[in-house]
Structures are given as C-alpha cells and as structure tokens.
Prior knowledge:
By secondary structure, this protein is an alpha/beta fold. The chain has 15 helices and 20 strands.
Amino acid sequence: MASILPALDHxxxxxxxxxQHLYGEQALRQVAEHSQQVASALDAxxxxxxxxxxxxxxxxxxxxxxxxxxxxxxxxxxxxxxxxHTFSPAKMxxxxxxxxxxxxxxxxxxxxxxxxxxTIDMDFMNLNQSAHGGREFxxxxxxxxxARKVVVGHWQDPEVLREVGVWTRAAAAKHDLAHAKIAxxxxxxxxxxxxxxxxxxxxxxxxxxVNGYGVGDVVRFxxxxxxxQVDNLCGLYDESYEMADCLRSHGDRRQSLRDAARxxxxxxxxxxxxxxxxxxxxxxxxxxxxQLPGIASQRLMADGYGFGAEGDWKAAAMVRASKVMxxxxxxxxxxxxxxxxxxxxxxxxxxGAHMLEICPSIAAGRPSCEVHPLGIGGKEDPVxxxxxxxxxxxxxxxxxxxxxxxxxxxxxxxxxxxPESLSKLPVARALWTPRPDLKTAAAAWIYAGGSHHPVFSQxxxxxxxxDFAEMTGIxxxxxxxxxxxxxFKNQLRLGDLRKE
Length: 500
C-alpha cells in the first residue's frame, strides 16, 4: 500500500536576511550574494529535507511586513529562517513579526568562519556584524514574546545543519497537523480519563479537527470490498511476512486472514473517502467487525496514518505528527503503551506493547503474521503482526489535556533485547530502560500526568518534540538522564502557577 505521508521536499522554508541602507549599495550587494550562498548550501544539505528558498534582503519595515504576510498565505511555506547579516534596526521588524503566523528559526551565524586577522578593517567589521545584529533581532523577538528556535554557529557546521534540519521537520509536522482530520470510530473506552479532552481547544492549539463516526460508517465500506481485493491483499501478506502455517493459503485459519484483510481494505476506503490522516477505535464499540483491527491498524500506521486505541484522539494526532517529522529517517515510530514492568532489585525496565496495534516500522526483522485469542473485546481471534524492537535509543512522547492547557511529556529511553525468549507473548513489543532509571522516570511521568499511550520513536529525538512544542505553544517537560525528581516537581509547579 502507498504511504500517505507528505513529501517533505515539497515544503519550503523561506530564507530571509536583515540589513539596512546605512552601509551603501555595494555592501547590500555583498549581503545578498552571501545570503544566496548560505540559502543554497542549506537547500542542498541532506540533513534538511525541505526546500530552502532565498528571498531578497530586507531593509525596510514595509518590505518585512509584506514578505511575512506572503509567507503566511503561501501553502508550501512551513516557516522562516532569519539571518541578520549586518545590524538591522529591530523596530522595523515589529509590524512584520507581530503578524507572523509561521514558525521562525533565528540562524545566528556569519558568512566567514574565521576572522582575517592580518587584514581585518572596519569595512569588514561593518559588513560582518551578525554578532551585533543578531542580538538586536533577538531582543525584539523576546520583547514580542515570540516563540522561535535560535541556532548558533557557522552555517557550514554539520551540527548547525542538523539543528536546522530538526526544526524543519517539526515545522512540516505542524503544517500538516494544522489541516489534519482525525476520525473517531465509535466513542472513547468507557470511564477512561486520559483519552478524553477538549477537541475544540485542540483544534485551536494544533489545527487538527476530530469528529465522531459510527462503526456502521466503516462497515459500509467493508461490505463493498470484493473477494478479489481480499485475495490480492492476502497475497501481499503472504509475500511480506512470516506466515503462521494456519494462515497460509491452505491453512485452517485462512478465513481469519481474509476477514482481517477485508477490515483493512474497508478502513482504508473509509479514511480515503474524507482524506483522514488518523483515526481511533475502541474494542467496546466495534459492532459489525468480526475481529478487532489488529494487522489493519499496524499496516495503516506503517503507511503514515495516526492511530489511537480506546478512542485516544490525542495519541492519533501525535502519531501522525511524529510520522511526518520522521519521514525519511532511519528507525520506526509507533503508537505504544507502557504495559508491564521488570523490577529486579536496583533496576527496572518497561515492556511496551498493546493488545494488537504496534507499527511494524519498529520491527527488528521480518514480522510474523499470527492469529491468537484475545480474551477481551468479545470478537473472533484477531490477526496481528508479532515482532521485537531492535536495541538502541528511543523517545516516548505524549500530549495530555490538563483542563487549562496541553502539556507534552517526553521520556528518553534505551531499548534493550529481552534476556529470554518471549515466545508465549503473541504481540509486538519493545523492552526499554528509561533514563535516568525506571524509579525516577516512572515517578516523573506520573507526576506530569503523562498518558499510558505515548508515541514511541527510534527515529526522532527530544529535540524534534521540543521544537514542535515551541511552535505550537504548549508546555513541555522532559525526562532524561539528568532528571532529578525534586527539580522536576518544581518545574511542574511553575507550569501550574503560570496558568493559574
């Protein structure tokens, strides 16, 4: 099946440069030449997945405001990268910055990496005064309380390019989510708190819309799927996965695979009918489904759809945003659940899994396609993909609704291999050690109100989510190797005080 993720190279960030006429036309020509070279280098770098488009040097208030208004309405523009090559008096930026509706990155760099010690003169100093101009621009952004990312260093430094690339991915995800549609198939799991929330506030904050649909709306599409379509998809399953003998073409459970394929095809058709990019369901409300959609949700996530179990629409939106940010990166991204602990004395690990719906993008190898009883939901035995997750660093991220604001909680973890076989556990899973340790990390997550439905990613880092939180204006708390509970609790108290 085809990916529904946007091609990130279809998006643009506009490279804007600030200067003034005080230095004369020759200096401004040099500023423009330098700016074009920097923009071209950013555009060509593999760490920056979007197009970087040079825009003329800005020297007057009306030019600045007009360009920013154009950026706001440009459908492919996901943000602005601003560089103050020279001093650029910041009062002339006020009107433009106050109207800015796109993410902003302040690239605090200069054209030359080294000073020409033996030849440096005042002409050189006047032309290359980013150190001076960047502080003026930074003051005005702070005065206007403008959210932005500041990247410092030479524009050819790989670390600088990496930071810019991370920000562009977050900007692309914000842009995608601002127009996203999430379908709630049925309602939330009954009596569950964290999967609820204010959908109007979410649309105001992030842009995505969430609307409810009856299970029958999906079943209607399932009923229209032909047997030949089901046969073709079952053939694709046969080619793609290690099939359990009972699910093979002459196996005694082949009909279960056919039922699962019909569910996947019907779900896809329903989602495509209204251009949804994410959805939720719950096992308590699936009348008309023969089995819970296990392999269907797994494969839809692999193609870029957001998913949230038990009606968790915030999780579905975060999976979608994370999939967009991670497009083209190595490592997978999935809906996840903190399921159970390994608690030896002096340590501890989390076994993450779900009943069925873990994305195969995080599989260590070729997944196994199996069918097993599920002891919950009251349906026929569902087909699912079973696999382990490869060792390495990862992050868990979630967004929760605190009633007066949204909070993002990010936890850094290290995936490890299980010490023994999990041959009796018929679900996809990941085993990880949280940083700095399970005792601290779990307490911090709970103090922060983090959901049991995070996005798990081995492709993304804390920095991606930090940039995304900054752009969307939501609170962010991070649990990492430096976390100390006393300081973390104080951070949470300060967040509460700011919103009282």
